[in-house]
Amino acid sequence: xxxxxxxxxxxxxxxxxxxxxxxxxxxxxxxxxxxxxxxxxxxxxxxxxxxxxxxxxxxxxxxxxxxxxxxxxxxxxxxxxxxxxxxxxxxxxxxxxxxxxxxxxxxxxxxxxxxxxxxxxxxxxxxxxxxxxxxxxxxxxxxxxxxxxxxxxxxxxxxxxxxxxxxxxxxxxxxxxxxxxxxxxxxxxxxxxxxxxxxxxxxxxxxxxxxxxxxxxxxxxxxxxxxxxxxxxxxxxxxxxxxxxxxxxxxxxxxxxxxxxxxxxxxxxxxxxxxxxxxxxxxxxxxxxxxxxxxxxxxxxxxxxxxxxxxxxxxxxxxxxxxxxxxxxxxxxxxxxxxxxxxxxxxxxxxxxxxxxxxxxxxxxxxxxxxxxxxxxxxxxxxxxxxxxxxxxxxxxxxxxxxxxxxxxxxxxxxxxxxxxxxxxxxxxxxxxxxxxxxxxxxxxxxxxxxxxxxxxxx
Length: 459
Ligand SMILES: Cc1ncc(COP(=O)(O)O)c(C=O)c1O
Fold this sequence. Notes:
It is built from 17 helices and 14 strands.
């Protein structure tokens, strides 16, 4: 299974894999990477599954990296790779951008955690409020997951209701309140260990206005939360007009409309999807690019809602929110520098142009090889889709989320790594550091990979 979000990689990795005695792509990559293999063997004694994030579970073993710069990184066995993981989308400027590195160094020498207010957190919040159209106030957290948790707490406090509506396949971090329906078949918890009472507060519906209207009918919904890019950063695009209709239906039912722009924020445009579409939510969840590659997240939105976080003055609907590392000064330094560079939108436009050309050339490579498939996506991202007459049009969320079938995924991943390209499970993030050279190398690697997969009888 090619998993497009960060919840179900355990399933992907536990899918059985033939490390071909025939010297297939997986066996070849394993043989080329003895140091990654050795580190993985060490890690298996330390970490459950040998990894520190489910998304890195991989067959035959995870890649280990030693250094990264711009659009590239170097693995432990000395191979140079074009990187399309890009800090899970956090690194809009590329790995270790010199201005971000120097801001982080300078701040680390001043203080990490002053245990007091500091100027950088105000600079950071002012940038968020300037860039994100619906942001009137900001509260920083340590991750996107924490921000999503906090946004829902604010929504429940503001409405006095418990229920949350989310869309099939949309991912909002790993906390209990949203860990339902993120992966096909979208009708069950994403994880063991979820209290039934918590799961029961979440209604998962398809991205369909009729289904949303029905879910709102009882008048008991606190918030509708969704990825405004469509599930998993555009893997499953939303139907035309859905955001505007959802805003209307949510408002009419007295519920709050919450955008999760952890991935799309500052990437789709300086102000995220809400800038592009003009459809503005009540609350927005941010992360990733926000903190320039350091840990960080934020909730922002309407002042009257956000002010519920304002301490005893907020009254009985006061929302509590401690957090040792909220607005951590080193994250703030990276965030302020990154958002400052991203504010004019030129870097996003450049990354978008390179991504569009990469998508077109990957699709042409499918055609040349006579393999059904395409690369599609928006902004500075791409998603590979194998089969289905080479178009995502008309496919449902389950098909799109499994665009690289399970039998193919490890071989594709390893064949591309052997040719110098690190995909993010059949998808990819570009940065402002990616350019024509990366496109050319990636397309060459992909054409050779398709030939290899054909020879292995996998496509
Ligand atoms: C859309 C979306 N929301 C929330 C999160 C959670 O963010 P974090 O991993 O920082 O907790 C992610 C992470 O990938 C995400 O893609």
